[in-house]
Each structure stands twice: as C-alpha cells, then as structure tokens.
User: What shape does this take?
Amino acid sequence: MLIYYNEKMCDGKWNGIVMPEDFPPPRTSMFPAAVPPVKGVQGQEAFQWKETVAANDIVAVSADSLPEACHPEGIRSVGWRVIKRLGRGGGDLLEAYEPGAVISYPFTLLKDGDYLLELHRYPSLNSVGQIRVLVQVDDGKERLLESASNDEWRGNWEINTLDQVDKLYLELPKLCAGSHEIHFRAVDRYFAFSGFVLYPFAGCSSISGLYNECGEPDRNKFLPEEKSIPEKINCIRFLSGDDTLSGKECVEEAQNIWYSELPLSPRPLIRARWESGGDSLGATDVQLPMEEVLGEDAVTKTTAEELLAKGKHIFKEYDGIVRMDAFSAWGQTPYAYTSNDAWDYCASETCGRTGIAMHIQEKNRVWNNVETAPTLHYRFSCTGGSYMIWALTYVTCPKNGRFALSIDDTPVASENLYRGGNLWKYEAEHIWRLTPIAKVELPAGEHLLSFSAFASGFRVERFVIE
Assistant: This one.
C-alpha cells in the first residue's frame, strides 16, 4: 500500500508523505502480535457462510463471510458495506453507513452454557460522538455494546492502536445447544467490525480470535471486575492447512491491486550498531538484505514443525556463526526451553512472514529480577574466541526493552550489554531490529545461553552468535 501511495497514486505526487517506518519522526506501530496456529484444528468450512458450527466449543466468524448471493434472502444487510482489505490481518471490513442497519449471522452451538461474545471492532475514533452497536441473539432482548475508545487516550485507545483492533465483550448467558442467529444493529453511523468470536464462559479469552487474524490475550483488562475471566486459561489455536497468516491468495490479490507492475523487493533487515548508552533523534541503523545477514532460511517460508525441530539437538557453529530460532524453545527440549512460565509466541516478519517469535503476551506484567523473569534457554557449541551475540527483537517502550543475558549461568556484566541492558531507543521502537546485545569471550565447547526479559510485550525471533 505504501508503494501505491508513494509511487503510483497521482504519478508519485505524494511520495514520502506516508512513511510509517522512516525515522525520524517516530515510527508507527505496524506489526500487531498475531498468533499463528500451532495446535488445535479448525476447518476452513467453519468460516463459510450458511451456518457457522462451533468447533472446540468456539464459534469464530469473519464479518466479510457474506457472499452477495445471500442478499437479500437469509440476512438483513441493507445499510452495510464491505470495505476491501481494511479488515485486520488483510481481510475485509464490514461498515454500517446508515444508523439502525442490521446484519445477522446464523450459528450452531454443540453444548448448552454461558458464552462470551468478543466483537472485533475497527479502532476508528469519534471524539464528539459515540460508537455503539446493539446485539441480539434470536428473538431475545437487544443489548448495547459501546466502545470507550472514541478518541486518543480514552478507554483502551493505546492498546487498540498497537493491536489494531478494539475488542468489545458481552456476556451471553444460558444459550442452548442448537441453531441460533445473532443480530448486530448499528446505533451510530460508521460502526465497523472485522469479525466476532463466541467462547464458552468457563474460562476463555481471545488469543486467536478470528482465523488468521489473531491478537494478544486481554485477560481481565476489558471485562467487568465482578465477571472477570480466570487468569490461567487454555490457549486455543485455529489451524487450516498451512495458512498461518494471511493466505497466499490474499497476498497475491493485494499485490495485483496495489502494486500492479511495481516489483516488490524483500523486506530489508534493520541492523543496529553497538552502543553503550545515550540516545538521539538521528538515524544510526543500517538496512541490509535479510538473507545476507541471517542466511537463506530467513527468507524461505517455514512451518512451526520445522522451527521446533531445530530445538531437538544442540545448536552448532558453522562458518563462524551459531544461529538459533527463538521459537524452538516452545518445544521444551533439553537444548531449547523456557523458564518462569510467561512466554507465548506470535508471528514475525522473517521467512516470508511465516516466521514465529517468542512473545510475552500478558498485559502490564513487570519483573524486577532474573530469578523470576521469563527466560529463554538454548544450548550451543562453538570453536571459541571473541563473539558478538545478536538478537532480532521487537520492543515498544523503555519498559519492555529491558533484558539480561547469562552464559553457562554466569551473568554478562552490564558494560558488555547493549546500552547496559535495554534494547529500546527512539529509533528502535515498533520495528523488528537485529541488535548486538552482548560482547563475550567463549572457550571452545558447549554452552548455555539464557536470555531474560522483564516486561510484557517483548518479542524475540532469533539469536545469532558470530
């Protein structure tokens, strides 16, 4: 889309106006922590129109799953319109252009019970008005859902901006097994959403949400305190074939529409220079071809199984370099594992956007010491000598940029860590960045690298020792 705006629209008249990754000014958040499926089964047919049937007791519906053939029979969609490619994760968005417009979706539940509706609203703003929708199941009473985030710094605006979604919740008690219909009536003009999920209220909060459009878990953040969801929940992943992110067809369609004859180059790797402290508004990072720095496997599409398999043996040095995929620790093997039970995972930008990073998803968590902080551990072997340890990371603020590193259970001194142990700087926020995190002397043989993060939101995709 940026290439379209800068080079194609109006023959390049507005080139350079929209540059969210340039620095300065501060970079714009572009990569919400999508959660690709690793476990669980969810067939593609569950998202086709006609009727959505619960799978694993969960109903997940994409708002744009309404073919024109269904109108006007079976649904009431007058006053709604589809906005192509504006939905979260590359899908379409459904927007009400008339107040009072109603749209309906049939679905089937396999069990009786209390359910929780999670509506994925497009995070638009209306500082002088309200953003509301009425929800009705079958012929029951209409109930109001309203977003408190109708302007900057209101409600959950900051989180919505980073996650690119405003999740609205409503309890749906005492639903019976069988067929139902849920209706959404827009109270205010321009209410827009990309989908919704129904969870059994026994203890689920959204981690995956819509198929291929996953967000961070919200836990108790957006729910009334008296009806909070249990802190510990079962993480559910949706899976359909090899589609872990936006499908190939979606990507090809977008390329044809936005870029046409414009060729797309692979995303470059942003690499930081070694710094011991200080900060400035000047750009110091360099951009290099990703395969040149991280190897060919960093630009080749991969699967979760392939990444996990790398953690089933010790990581070895080849041509003076040890490469370790962070996600391999999800497998909890003797050679790659986690400790202190706070790590989850999310999508990354390597491997043709099929890469997977380790991520601390829970909101507002802070740890003050290495003993309790979430830690990643990797066993590797090297030939010995002076090494620089690099990490491909994503941070958003000084708080979640803090880290610690140890080799063979011996902490690396702060003077040998990048900026004393903090990856954040103005230039580094909201981007995937390869940073030289430590300088170390290592004898030949096997070693254990332990990397600790101290706050929510931290993401790391791989480590390189050279």
